[in-house]
């Protein structure tokens, strides 16, 4: 799936703009860039542990309650334009005691092992039905039908994933001479109960100067969502308003139990236009979210409900996997401070911390009353063993 998504480097765009004649101020660098993605997971996503996989959630379905449970997730990436004096590249992110991650977590270069990266997708069966928009009934032109029998092996149909909402990564292995990240082979246990990110942070490495910043923003509150099947067989999703949310997007996938038999897979999103995947299940900058709200691709932060059309419920069968993503704020840091006037700004490093909160629902399932609700309380769930799960075209689901 990742090969089909378009990655955008904001740092590259900024550097291009800085070089345009007539710009008020020139800048160089940054020599080193850090990106810290922070997520709060609730409902079945929390029950599945650190990565929110469906397998872990299902394994707990009969032994736990998704209400009042949250889990936290951190993804750390450090990129540099320098090579280490003594390879390999490595670093550490040092936390305050309240983070409950120990003194530090290790940042190391990713290891690629032969046989762990498939070169092509599994040939799918049946059809994929695409629906979109909130409302009791599906809008005109729906569903868009993709017949897998007409798709070449391993080829993702064009325009399936959103081109309007790219996945944004300012720091990646592709745009860095040296790159390290966490979680990794040396460890990756996510934060536990009572963790807080408030306070001072330090990132030290052998590929650049120390990065120091202080966070005043903590994990976002958990989403608490519920679903109810209406008399017309549409499904109403309702959720709590998260104070720091900048916007919301919801999506469901149904018919997965029929995939191996060649049945229809049904994919719905709350966007008013045909927009699937991409940054809609990831982190997005507040400015991008604000623009997407004006285009009705993302729901505004004041909205707390959305109706899944009856046609989606009927086509999906007995159970749908539902997701709700609340985009959040971000914090930006750089060193040295920007100089006054038109003096050249020689940037040593930048750091960005992005926040979001998301939850997962099993719509239509009956697990002792748990299938139609998800809670966003304050007791983090313990990670469970992760199992692979696939969505349309053999692509990993956003919550796997």
Question: Approximately how much beta-strand content do the residues carry?
Answer: 25-35%
> How many structural domains?
1
The rounded Rg comes to 22 Å
Coarse structural class? mainly beta
Fraction of residues in helix: under 10%
Number of helical stretches of at least 4 residues = 5
Number of strands: 22
Keywords: Signal
Secondary structure: elements and pairs:
Elements: E1 7-8, H1 10-18, E2 27-28, E3 32-43, H2 44-47, H3 54-60, E4 69-80, E5 90-94, E6 104-108, E7 127-132, E8 144-147, E9 167-168, E10 178-182, E11 199-205, E12 211-215, E13 225-229, E14 235-239, E15 247-254, E16 265-269, H4 286-294, E17 305-308, H5 310-316, E18 320-335, E19 345-346, E20 349-363, E21 373-374, E22 379-380
Parallel strand pairs: 1-9, 2-19, 3-20, 4-22, 7-16
Antiparallel strand pairs: 3-4, 4-10, 5-6, 5-11, 7-8, 11-12, 13-14, 13-21, 14-17, 15-16, 15-18, 18-20
Describe what this molecule looks like in 3D.
The protein has 400 residues and is mainly β. The protein has one domain. Helix content is 9%, strand content 33%. It contains five helices and 22 strands. It has helices spanning 10-18, 44-47, 54-60, 286-294, 310-316, and strands at residues 7-8, 27-28, 32-43, 69-80, 90-94, 104-108, 127-132, 144-147, 167-168, 178-182, 199-205, 211-215, 225-229, 235-239, 247-254, 265-269, 305-308, 320-335, 345-346, 349-363, 373-374, 379-380. Strands 3, 4, 7, 8, 10, 15, 16, 18, 20 and 22 form a ten-stranded mixed sheet that branches. A hairpin with a 5-residue loop joins strand 13 (225-229) and strand 14 (235-239). It is elongated and about 60 Å long. Residues 1-22, 50-67, 366-371 and 377-388 have low confidence and may be disordered. Residues 1-26 form the signal peptide. Residues 372-400 are annotated as: Disordered. Keywords: Signal.
């Amino acid at each position: 799936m990742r090969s089909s998504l378009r990655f955008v480097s904001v740092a590259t765009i900024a550097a291009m703009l800085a070089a345009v004649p007539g710009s008020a101020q020139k800048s160089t660098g940054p020599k080193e860039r850090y990106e810290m993605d922070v997520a709060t997971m609730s409902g079945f996503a929390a029950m599945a542990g650190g990565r929110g996989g469906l397998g872990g959630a299902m394994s707990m379905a009969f032994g736990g309650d998704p209400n009042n449970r949250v889990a936290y997730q951190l993804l750390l990436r450090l990129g540099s334009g320098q090579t280490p004096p003594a390879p390999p590249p490595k670093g550490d992110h040092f936390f305050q005691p309240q983070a409950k991650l120990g003194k530090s977590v290790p940042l190391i270069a990713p290891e690629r092992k032969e046989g762990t990266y498939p070169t092509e997708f599994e040939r799918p069966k049946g059809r994929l039905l695409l629906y979109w928009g909130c409302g009791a009934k599906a809008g005109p032109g729906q569903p868009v039908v993709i017949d897998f029998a007409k798709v070449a092996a391993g080829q993702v149909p064009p325009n399936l994933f959103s081109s309007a909402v790219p996945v944004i990564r300012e720091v990646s292995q592709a745009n860095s001479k040296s790159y390290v990240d966490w979680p990794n082979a040396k460890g990756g246990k996510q934060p536990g109960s009572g963790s807080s990110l408030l306070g001072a942070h330090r990132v030290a490495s052998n590929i650049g100067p120390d990065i120091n910043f202080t966070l005043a923003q903590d994990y976002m509150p958990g989403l608490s969502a519920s679903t109810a099947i209406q008399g017309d067989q549409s499904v109403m999703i309702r959720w709590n308003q998260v104070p720091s949310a900048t916007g919301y997007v919801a999506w469901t996938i149904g018919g997965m139990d029929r995939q191996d038999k060649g049945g229809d897979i049904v994919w719905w999103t709350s966007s008013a236009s045909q927009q699937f995947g991409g940054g809609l299940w990831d982190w997005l900058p507040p400015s991008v979210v604000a623009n997407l709200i004006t285009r009705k691709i993302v729901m505004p932060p004041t909205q707390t409900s959305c109706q899944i059309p009856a046609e989606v419920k009927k086509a999906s069968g007995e159970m749908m996997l539902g997701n709700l993503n609340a985009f959040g704020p971000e914090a930006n840091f750089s060193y040295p401070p920007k100089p006054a006037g038109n003096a050249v700004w020689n940037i040593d490093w930048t750091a960005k911390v992005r926040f979001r909160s998301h939850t997962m629902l099993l719509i239509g399932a009956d697990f002792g009353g748990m299938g139609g609700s998800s809670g966003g309380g304050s007791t983090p769930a313990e990670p469970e063993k992760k199992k692979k799960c696939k969505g349309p075209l053999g692509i990993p689901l956003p919550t796997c």
